[in-house]
Structure formats: structure tokens, C-alpha cells
Specification:
By secondary structure, this protein is an alpha/beta fold. It folds into two domains: 3-67; 89-280, Vaccinia Virus protein VP39 (Rossmann fold). It is built from twelve helices and eleven strands. The protein has helices at 3-14, 20-33, 39-44, 52-66, 71-75, 96-109, 126-134, 147-159, 201-204, 209-212, 221-230, 249-259; strands at residues 77-80, 83-86, 116-120, 139-144, 165-168, 181-186, 191-192, 213-214, 234-243, 263-268, 274-280. A seven-stranded mixed beta sheet has the order 5-4-3-6-9-11-10, with helices on both faces. Helix 7 (126-134) links the parallel strand 3 (116-120) and strand 4. The radius of gyration is 21 Å and the shape is elongated. 31% of the residues are buried. Bound molecules: glutamine.
Amino acid sequence: MTLLSFKQKLYATLESHYPTSEIDSFFKIILEDVLNLSKIDFALEPNKIVSDDKNTKIDQIISRLAEHQPIQHLIGFTEFMDLKIMVNEHVLIPRPETEELIRWILNDYSTAPNLDVLDIGTGSGCIPIALSKSLNDANINTIDISTKAIETAKKNAEINKVNINFIHQDILTTNQFPQQYDVIVSNPPYVRNLEKAEMQKNVLEFEPHLALFVEDNDPVIFYKKIAELAISAIKPKGALYYEINQYLGKETIELLKQIGFKNIELKKDMFGNDRMIKATF
Ligand code: GLN
């Protein structure tokens, strides 16, 4: 198979499943990550022969993409804040909206030294790893209920050469945090079953439901529990940061007020949806 015939096969197999723009990005990702080539290499030498083993790998990727498996699972990683983050079926694939939350925290705290940070529901570890890369000598802690997620996050911390303290724990049965923090952050599960109709197959069928879904009758359960614990564990100049369900901004702000947070800021993501909250005293 040549590069050109690979490209033709990719587009022909996937055109009934995905918009062209998405197939374009699959093409680029496979070129870069499976073949170690750029689009310029392709343009210069479209008839270059693809080796047999790469050929088999590419055929496998194409047929799995046709089943809507996420491209990040097929190549094994994604990029988050320019870091390489390994992903698998046990962790949520880090989203660009979460990068915006990280930028907000860094904008507020990047010059402060020795921060104590706690992340709840770490999944791949993308949040504490990205914070650790940009904060000076921070003490970064993270909790997750899933041992498989913690294993993945630990590998990611190793790959990215950062030091993080991992705690295997269910936040819903936690009675208090072990210390005071400058920053508490969480992107907990927040999707209701009633929103399933809006979701794509690659998310619904291949990403962990434990990381995504909450009960329709108590969709802010994690926000409530974390805020109740955080109110007595945030230092005077500290803050609580949440990624939120775009449809639940009002409810989340209301519950933070009830718990005792005075200043609450809501921010939209790049798509114009209510997506992040910062709460202070
Ligand atoms: N904190 C991780 C992330 O932002 C995992 C979130 C989750 O699984 N709900 O991607």
C-alpha cells in the first residue's frame, strides 16, 4: 500500500460515518503518530510504500474508526496543554474545555509559590499533571475512586516527569480533607441520562460511564459534596474551581451560595456554553 492508497481507503471507508473535517484530522493523526510523517512528507511523496506492519496497524485503526472507537484510544494517547496524556477505556479523554479551566487557575495562581492543590476525580491525571508542570514547587494531591484510573494517571505523571500524591478514595464517603489547600479543583461526572440523546457514539459507547454520568434526580451530587468539604479546607486566599454541566450553571451557583461561598464567577467555554465556576469566600 502507498500513502496515497492509505488516504483513499481512509476517506472511502469513513465518509459515511464522519464529516470530512474529522476524517482530515484522523489522516493527520495517523500520518504523524503511526507513520512519523507530516502532511508535507505526504505531499512530496504520495507514492511512498507503507511497510507491512504499519499497513496492518493502519487497517486495524480504520476498521475501528468505522465502529466509532475514539482515535485517542487507537493511538493510545491525546494531547492536553501540549502534554502527552495516555488514555484508555478506564479514563475520560481530556477535553479542550478542561484546558480552559486550567488556564483560569494558572492565570490566578501561576506566580504563587508552594501552593497546596487538590484535584478530585483525576481520571487520566490531566488536571494535576498540567498544573504541576506550570506551578512552582506546588504540593499536588489527587483523589479518584477508580484504581484503574489511578494506575493510568500514575503512568501519565511518570511520562510527564511530575510528582503527584495519589489517593484512592470515594469522595462521596469522605468525611474531611486531610489538610488546607490553596486550590481545590474538580471536573466530576455531570452528564444526565436525559442528555444521552445529544452524545456521540464514540463517547457513549467507549468512554467510562463512571466518569461521565450522574443520576438525573441528583445531578449536582459531586459539586455539593466537594463544596461542603472544601468550605472548611480552603485557605483564606484560596479558591474552588469546577468544570460544570452547561445546563446546570444556575443550580451549581445556588448550591455554592447555600454552602457559604460568597464570590462566585461563571465562565463560558470557547463554544459559548456555561462551563466553569470559581468560588471564593
Ligand atoms: N479530571 C479528569 C478530566 O478532566 C477526569 C474527569 C472525569 O472523569 N469526570 O479529564
